[in-house]
């Protein structure tokens, strides 16, 4: 089933969305969303709450099912084929606003669960990668603790490590710093910056403008379920084209 | 701690006299107002009266002979009588079963390394061993019986050593060992045809506290998987499965256990093929398990409902299949959250096992009551018997509710 | 633009890999499994009923039961039908349940509040009460009370208090008002209900006036007075009209060679032991529910109430209790249901409740049918309780 139509997006596009529509009941959350993300590109998604930006990244790994339109991730079309869904979920890691760590498992077990149960790795291989990743996110000494014993920032860093343990090609971040105290936001953003320099493809929903300016290759502005503006951060922040974008920026930058 | 010079230099004035020491305590808790003082006087007088007559009755008026006459039979019922075990040489079997359980509890202590598990294991061993020390005039036990009881002390130590020196130290191995011990106890009590020393003892002679404990432990253990299945079924989005689970749960929760038990004599044999081997114990066990499953299902469902939906999403985002997410993420958390409720259910079930009298089984209560009925000279001692039984049940149930509260407390403090 | 795929498309996906087909198949297969199990179970029962010539059907309900029922509130004679005996048994269970629920609630609230008392002796006594009675099987408690009642002196040597209250091992007998003639009593009861309604109306009106004018109108006193006065006038009128008082007092008195107590109202010993046991046992659970409910109302609420200048009693009545009730009522109702179900232990101490009578019936009537009947009866009771709970919840939400 690995066939792509090449009429939208260049060959190095890792995510292609064409006219994606989704309804919650009668409510049209995604209205003809068409965009693509290149391999290694960092995209920051902005938009008022309820604009569909979270739903947009949740359909990319099928936490929500889109109803019409094409989504092609790393050449694999998102269809009802279990094999394709599994393949896409393996390639796409996700970090949530509320961390969603498993409270009954230790930090190490949280990280090794995916590799062991999905990729069927032996325990010592999974443990090795867990140690490596904890080192990378800066909390190597916490591996035997339970999530509730960590601070919010540390929990979110574990969540990033957990997603990375599946060795994804794409990372999705759904407002990763919104539930954190101000002093912890930086430690999470630092990990994300490091991840960005390593060449990972990232789609980040966030209101952290500083982070967006520094890291993003492209900004996407959502409103009312559709993409209303797409631009590199320099243009986006200095000379937004849409009135709605200007208004929104003036509100979050105030 | 921040140092504040002026605060350190401030002279701490003693609180007013009425708030200090014994007097302060008395004032705050007993005589803080006229109304309160009145309550103290009336309540205190009542308590003293009750204590006075209660203690006087216990130590002087009550005739505890009926307890000593029944003695160990309250623990094992008619298991070692002529009808059950010709030769009366079967008493070692329930005792060996108790030793296995003590070893298991010792293992729990060794695994947990102290705390609640330690206290429970030690208490069991010490109480069992204490019975070995009863004076002969009270309970005419032979030396063999006393030795087996005293052996519970080394047994708990042996159990404690096992996790230290063998790989049997994980929760999973404990669960497996628990099941093995349960089956071993059943086999020991049931006996095996043709094995010398293990002649079969019909289950109709199983009785006493042994029967209450077996039914309660077995009922809870087997009802856990059934309850989980029912809870998942009730949350399923397939209407037929959901409806059947709801009907099952509500019917079993809506009817008294005693009604179910006595109807089981008529209905359970009908539901199985005609040549299916069934006896009163199995019928009771089936009904108690199903009854308990319905309550277990509601407990587990409560646990599942208390989970944040983000947990399932987190699992799906990692690529786990939905059965994996349920098995590894949702269920462990749900069950962990409802452990106190499950202990509560165990207490209720343990108390309810006294209802098997309705199908003629001689559990500890019915054994005692039948004895009084059959020996009218002890009729005036019925009060003493039931006070004693109340005390026995109370010790078991209160211990378990203490355990439940400790677990709840530990869960609140630790990881969540 | 490529063609837009619709929602459920196959796109050449093999069906064993199609996510929706997989979902539906597993669901349907598990559904079929469950149904097969149920059908096998009931099929076995149906087969057994036919093959083993086990009587079935409900024809027996019209037959004479021909078995005495120890104690009954409805008139009953062994020549009555099974159906009637069944109704008598249900009434017996309902009687115990309703009285038990009322008494257990009162006692439970009392102990629960005592548990919250800041008097050390009172709260510890309540704690001991709760921890003792809820950790001992109800059956053991029932037997204890039963043997205590049995240990009371025999009828002839029984205690007699003020020549009206008889206590002995057959039970407790008290004077009871009985109708002198059906017509007079009936008319007066209807009028009495009317006077109560008038009293309620008066209470409402006075409360309304109190709120409107702000001056005390004593609605409780006024309402009671209206009800009593109207009731008394009706009593005199009916008494005058029929030439006799509508209700007369029947006092219990020893009768015959054995001194059996006749007249008045006798609570039999089994029923007394059952009520004492059920009420004490259930009240220990209710006390904990009440305590948890009151504690669930945060301290901030009481403080806010005090800050408004309400007195303590006002805070309790207007702030604490309404919020505590929200937490108390659902588990309270499940305790009511438990009490009703637990009344089935009555058989152990010789009171003829539904389960006990049904058990005897199985000796002369088809057991399967009887099982269906008692199941229906108990489920009806538990549904009634749920209904009350749901109605209450709905009222709270508005």
User: Count the helices of chain B. How many?
Assistant: 19
Shape of chain A: globular
Largest interface, with counts of residues having CB < 8 Å to the other chain, equals: B-C, 59 and 59 residues
**Beginning-to-end CA distance, first to last residue of chain B:** 29 Å
Q: Report the order of strands and helices of chain B.
A: HHHHHHHHHHHHHHHHHHH
Largest sheet of chain A: 6 strands, mixed
**What structural category do the secondary elements of chain B indicate?**
mainly alpha
Report the C-alpha radius of gyration of chain B, rounded.
Answer: 27 Å
Number of helices of chain A: 9
Assembly annotation: heterotrimer
Structural class of the helix and strand makeup of chain A?
A: alpha/beta
Per DSSP E runs of 2 or more residues, the count of β-strands of chain A stands at: 10
- Give the proportion of residues in helices of chain A: 25-40%
| Average of the residue pLDDT scores of chain B | 85
Describe, in short, the structure shown:
The complex is a heterotrimer of chains A (254), B (416) and C (398). Chain A has 254 residues and is of the alpha/beta class.
How would you describe this structure to a colleague?
The complex is a heterotrimer of chains A (254), B (416) and C (398). Chain A is of the alpha/beta class and 254 residues long. Chain A is 38% helix and 25% strand. In chain A, strand 7, helix 6 and strand 8 form a beta-alpha-beta unit. In chain A, helix 4 (123-136) packs across helix 5 and helix 5 (152-165) packs parallel to helix 6 (182-197). Chain A starts with 12 loop residues before the first strand and ends with a helix. Helix content of chain B is 72%, strand content 0%. Chain B has helices at residues 5-9, 21-29, 34-61, 65-70, 73-76, 92-112, 115-132, 143-150, 152-165, 171-190, 208-235, 239-254, 257-271, 280-305, 309-317, 322-337, 339-352, 364-374, 382-413. The relative contact order of chain B is 0.09. Chain C is built from eleven helices and eight strands. In chain C, the strands form three sheets. A four-stranded antiparallel beta sheet of chain C has the order 1-2-3-8. A two-stranded antiparallel ribbon of chain C has the order 4-5. In chain C, strands 6-7 form a two-stranded antiparallel sheet. In chain C, helix 4 crosses helix 7 and helix 7 packs across helix 9 (312-342). The longest helix of chain C has 34 residues, at 82-115. The radius of gyration of chain C is 29 Å and the shape is globular.
């Amino acid at each position: 089933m690995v066939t792509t139509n090449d009429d939208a997006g260049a060959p190095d596009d890792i995510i292609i969305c064409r006219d994606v529509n989704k309804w919650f009941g009668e409510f049209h959350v995604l209205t003809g969303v068409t965009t693509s993300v290149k391999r290694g590109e960092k995209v920051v998604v902005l938009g008022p709450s309820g604009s569909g930006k979270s739903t947009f990244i949740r359909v990319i790994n099928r936490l929500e099912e889109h109803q019409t339109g094409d989504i092609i991730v790393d050449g694999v079309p998102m269809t009802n084929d279990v094999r394709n869904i599994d393949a896409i979920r393996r390639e796409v890691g996700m970090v949530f606003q509320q961390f969603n760590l498993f409270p009954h498992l230790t930090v190490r077990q949280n990280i090794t669960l995916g590799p062991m149960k999905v990729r069927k790795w032996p325990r010592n291989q999974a443990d090795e990668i867990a140690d490596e990743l904890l080192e990378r996110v800066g909390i190597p000494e916490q591996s035997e603790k339970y999530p509730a014993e960590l601070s919010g920032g540390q929990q979110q860093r574990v969540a990033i490590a957990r997603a990375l343990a599946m060795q994804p090609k794409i990372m999705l971040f759904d407002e990763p710093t919104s539930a954190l105290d101000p002093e912890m936001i930086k430690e999470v953003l630092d990990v994300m910056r490091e991840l960005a320099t390593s060449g990972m493809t990232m789609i980040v929903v966030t209101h952290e403008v500083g982070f967006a300016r520094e890291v993003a290759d492209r900004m996407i502005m959502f409103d009312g379920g559709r993409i209303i503006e797409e631009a590199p951060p320099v243009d986006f922040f200095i000379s937004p084209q849409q009135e709605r974008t200007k208004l929104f920026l003036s509100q979050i930058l105030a | 701690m921040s140092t504040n010079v002026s605060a350190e230099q401030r002279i701490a004035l003693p609180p007013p006299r009425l708030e200090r020491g014994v007097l302060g305590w008395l004032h705050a808790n007993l005589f803080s107002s006229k109304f309160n003082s009145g309550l103290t006087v009336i309540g205190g007088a009542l308590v003293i009266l009750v204590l006075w007559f209660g203690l006087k009755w216990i130590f002087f008026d009550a005739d505890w002979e009926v307890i000593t006459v029944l003695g160990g039979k309250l623990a094992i019922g008619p298991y070692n009588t002529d009808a059950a075990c010709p030769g009366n040489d079967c008493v070692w079997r329930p005792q060996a079963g108790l030793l296995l359980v003590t070893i298991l509890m010792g293992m729990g202590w060794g695994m947990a390394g102290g705390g609640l598990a330690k206290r429970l294991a030690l208490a069991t061993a010490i109480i069992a061993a204490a019975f070995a020390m009863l004076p002969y005039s009270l309970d005419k036990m032979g030396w063999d019986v006393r030795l087996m009881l005293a052996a519970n002390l080394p047994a708990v130590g042996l159990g404690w050593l096992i996790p230290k020196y063998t790989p049997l130290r994980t929760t999973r191995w404990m669960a497996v060992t628990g099941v093995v011990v349960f089956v071993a106890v059943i086999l020991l009590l049931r006996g095996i045809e043709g094995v010398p020393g293990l002649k079969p003892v019909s289950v109709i002679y199983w009785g006493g506290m042994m029967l209450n404990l077996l039914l309660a432990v077995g009922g809870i253990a087997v009802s856990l998987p059934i309850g989980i299945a029912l809870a998942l079924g009730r949350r399923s989005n397939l209407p037929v499965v959901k409806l059947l689970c709801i009907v099952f749960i509500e019917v079993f929760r809506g009817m008294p256990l005693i009604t179910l038990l006595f109807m089981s004599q008529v209905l359970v044999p009908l539901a199985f093929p005609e040549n299916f081997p069934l006896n009163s114990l199995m019928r009771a066990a089936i009904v108690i398990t199903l009854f308990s499953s319905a309550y277990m299902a509601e407990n587990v469902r409560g646990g599942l409902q208390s989970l944040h939906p983000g947990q399932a999403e987190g699992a799906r985002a990692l690529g786990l299949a939905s059965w994996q997410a349920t098995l590894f993420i949702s269920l462990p958390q749900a069950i962990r959250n409802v452990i106190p409720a499950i202990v509560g259910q165990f207490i209720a079930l343990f108390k309810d096992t006294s209802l098997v009298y309705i199908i003629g089984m001689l559990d500890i209560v019915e054994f005692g009551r039948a004895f009084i009925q059959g020996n009218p000279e002890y009729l005036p001692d019925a009060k003493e018997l039931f006070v004693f039984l109340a005390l026995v049940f109370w010790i078991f149930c209160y211990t378990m509710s203490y355990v439940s509260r400790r677990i709840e407390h530990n869960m609140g403090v630790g990881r969540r | 633009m490529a063609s837009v795929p619709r929602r459920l498309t196959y796109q050449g996906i093999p069906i064993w890999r199609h996510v929706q087909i997989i979902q539906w198949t597993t669901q349907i297969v598990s559904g079929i499994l469950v149904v097969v199990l149920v059908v096998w179970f009931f099929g076995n029962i149906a087969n057994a009923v036919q093959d083993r010539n086990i009587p079935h059907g409900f024809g027996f309900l019209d037959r004479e039961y021909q078995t005495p029922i120890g104690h009954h509130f409805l008139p009953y004679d062994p020549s009555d039908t099974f159906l009637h005996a069944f109704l008598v048994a249900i009434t017996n269970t309902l009687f115990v349940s309703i009285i038990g629920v009322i008494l257990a609630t009162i006692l439970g609230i009392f102990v629960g509040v005592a548990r919250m008392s800041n008097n050390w002796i009172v709260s510890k006594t309540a704690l001991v009460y709760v921890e003792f009675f809820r950790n001992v099987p109800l059956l053991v408690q029932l037997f204890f009370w039963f043997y205590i009642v049995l240990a009371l002196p025999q009828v002839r040597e029984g205690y007699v208090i003020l020549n009206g209250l008889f206590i002995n091992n057959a039970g407790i007998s008290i004077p009871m008002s009985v109708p002198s003639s059906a017509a007079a009593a009936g008319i007066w009861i209807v009028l009495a209900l009317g006077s109560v309604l008038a009293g309620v109306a008066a209470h409402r009106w006075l409360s309304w006036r109190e709120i409107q004018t702000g001056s005390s109108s004593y609605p409780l006193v006024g309402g009671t007075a209206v009800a009593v006065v109207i009731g008394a006038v009706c009593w005199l009128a009916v008494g005058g009209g029929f030439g006799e008082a509508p209700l007369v007092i029947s006092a219990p008195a020893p009768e015959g060679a054995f001194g059996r107590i006749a007249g008045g109202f006798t609570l039999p010993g089994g029923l007394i032991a059952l009520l004492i046991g059920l009420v004490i046992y259930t009240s220990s659970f209710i006390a904990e529910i009440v305590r948890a409910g009151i504690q669930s109302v945060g301290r901030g609420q009481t403080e806010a109430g005090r800050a408004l200048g309400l007195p303590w009693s006002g805070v309790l009545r207007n702030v604490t209790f309404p919020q505590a009730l929200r937490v108390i009522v659902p588990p309270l109702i499940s305790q009511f249901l438990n009490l009703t179900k637990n009344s089935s232990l009555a058989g152990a101490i010789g009171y003829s409740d539904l389960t006990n009578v049904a058990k005897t019936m199985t000796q002369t009537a088809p057991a399967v049918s009887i099982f269906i009947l008692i199941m229906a009866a108990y489920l009806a009771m538990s549904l009634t309780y749920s209904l009350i709970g749901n109605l209450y919840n709905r009222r709270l939400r508005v």
